[in-house]
Amino acid sequence: MSRKITIIGAGQVGSTVAFALTVKQLASEIVIIDIIKDKAMGEAMDIRQGTPFIGPVYVHDGDYEDAKGSDVVIFTSGVGRKPGQSRLDLTQTNVDIAKSVIPQIAKACPNALYVIVANPVDILTYQFIKTSGIPANHIFGTGTMLDTARFRARIAETYKVCQTNVHGYVFGEHGDSSFVPWSIANIGSIPVDYYANSFTGKEKLPTFDKNDVEDYIRKSGGIIIAAKKCTNYGIGITTATLVEALNYSTDSVLTISSLLDGEYDIKDVCLSIPTIVGINGIKGHIATPLTDDEVKSLRHSADCLKDVIKQIKF
Question: Is 174 a catalytic residue?
Answer without folding.
Answer: yes
